[in-house]
Amino acid sequence: MVKKMDMLYEGKAKKVFLTDDPDILWIEYKDDATAFDGKKKGTIMGKGELNNAISSIFFSMLKDHGIENHFVEKISDTEQLVKRTDIIMVEVIVRNIAAGGMAKRLGIPEGTPLKSTVVEFCYKSDELGDPMINDYHIAALDLATKEQVAEITDITLKVNEVLKQYLAERKVKLVDFKLEFGLFHGKVLLSDEISPDTCRFWDSETNEKLDKDRFRRDMGHVEDAYREILKRLTEKA
Ligand code: TMP
Ligand code: ASP
């Protein structure tokens, strides 16, 4: 087991610590919740524990499906070890059903199914509100190479297929989600977290929202929704 060392940085939802192994980081999931690039702030009781559990399950499952990622192991209720990557400053958004930003931007009613999967890239900057960019911007700003963007897109679409199927079996629709990638010794590696903070999950039958939209839109029962997702992931292992 590695030893926890100094804090590297504190993000909006997680604290990141160095360890005595230069390749391994120690992550602590917090109950803090933010939305709209940090403009809305709050606490979701128990979120750290729930997201640590949920993200661990998703990343282990993806690994079992041949999708390599940064997850190493869950070490406590709120902590996990991950591989240390140099984060690529691009957020990758995948959409199966129109919702949120896309529904608003294009004037499509939320819930409209999309004929094909949409992949969007955003420049990771709270200050600028994570503006949408395309592969030309990514190359021009030197955020990643063309080959890396191709690999990121390929992995992203695979994650979508595996996650969609896995969730459908648990009566959850995968509406959209966000992924982040890093470079581990120069190789593209899926990183960050996959949780109700970073995905839109709707109940397959009722379309009830089981994700952070309950917090963004002040709908209440936020913690219950996260707990329900964990329940569905663990009940049918
Ligand atoms: P959007 O509809 O607001 O663009 O969000 C699409 C999906 O990406 C949604 O599941 C939430 C997730 N997301 C994040 O996790 N972090 C972000 O900063 C943004 C903009 C979206
Ligand atoms: N960028 C947002 C935030 O500040 C993400 C969101 O709305 O989920 O947390």
What does this protein look like?
The longest helix is centred in the middle third of the chain and has 23 residues, at 146-168. This protein has helices at residues 47-64, 100-106, 135-140, 146-168, 213-216, 222-235, and strands spanning 4-10, 14-19, 24-29, 32-35, 40-43, 71-74, 79-83, 86-97, 113-123, 132-133, 172-184, 187-191, 199-203. Strands 8, 9, 10, 11, 12 and 13 form a six-stranded antiparallel beta sheet that branches. It starts with a strand and ends with a helix. Helix content is 30%, strand content 35%. The model has no long low-confidence stretch (mean pLDDT 97). It is globular, with a radius of gyration of 17 Å. The chain has 237 residues and is an alpha+beta fold. Bound molecules: thymidine-5'-phosphate and aspartic acid (ASP). Thymidine-5'-phosphate is lined by residues 91, 93, 99-102, 130, 176-178, 198-200. Aspartic acid binds at residues 12, 34-38, 130, 212, 216.
Summed up, what is this model?
Helix content is 30%, strand content 35%. The protein has 237 residues and is α+β, with helices and mostly antiparallel strands.
Helix/strand order, N-terminal first: EEEEEHEEEHEEHHEEEHH
Q: What's the mean pLDDT score?
A: 97
The proportion of residues in beta strands is: 35-45%
Bound molecules: thymidine-5'-phosphate, aspartic acid
Helix fraction bin = 25-40%
Helix and strand content put the structural class at alpha+beta
Number of strands: 13
Shape from CA axes?
A: globular
Q: Note the gap between the termini.
A: 27 Å
Low-confidence stretches: none
Give Rg in angstroms: 17 Å
Largest sheet data: 6 strands, antiparallel
Instruction: Provide a count of the helices.
Output: 6
